[in-house]
Specification:
It is built from 7 helices and no strands. The chain has about 140 residues and is mainly alpha-helical. It folds into 2 domains: about 1-30, no CATH class; about 35-140, Cytochrome Bc1 Complex, Chain D, domain 2 (Orthogonal Bundle), CATH 1.10.760.10. The termini are far apart.
């Protein structure tokens, strides 16, 4: 019986999503929870942050991780983002907020910043690479 329910659910989901435009599909997928099997590697995440991966540009092109003092960046300073992110969106924990910010950067905009973040991280990075990037940003001090 469970198998029949899983098959029916999969069929229904496929049927619903085939009617969606590509951007709508990506928006739906961005809000699905990340697979629990993917465990982030913060060392690899730092590499992605600083050097990029595949077609995805490095995050450091626009974001800094500088504690204290004045910083200039196109995007928000990500020092202590793990602590700051806990209060950004009601009902969303820091890891979920960071994940959403990567895969759907326009979902929440930090006041004072425009929606100019590279919009294709969800397509250019694998699920594992996104989890690695989240793990890096969740590490103390974002490092």
């Amino acid at each position: 019986m469970k198998t029949i329910i899983k098959i029916a659910s999969g069929f229904l989901l496929t049927h619903i999503l085939t009617g969606c435009a590509t951007d709508q599909l990506h928006a739906v997928l961005a809000y699905l929870p990340t697979p629990s099997a993917a465990v982030g590697d913060s060392v690899h995440g730092e590499s992605i942050f600083r050097e990029g991966a595949g077609n995805a540009p490095p995050c450091i092109s626009c974001h800094q991780i500088t504690t204290g003092g004045f910083t200039f960046g196109i995007g928000p300073n990500l020092a202590d983002i793990a602590q700051v992110a806990t209060a950004r969106v009601t009902g969303m924990d820091a890891a979920a907020y960071i994940h959403q910010s990567i895969v759907d950067p326009g979902a929440y905009l930090v006041p004072g910043f425009r929606n100019i973040m590279y919009p294709h991280f969800a397509q250019d990075l694998s699920v594992q690479e996104i989890e690695d990037l989240v793990a890096f940003l969740m590490a103390p001090g974002g490092e």
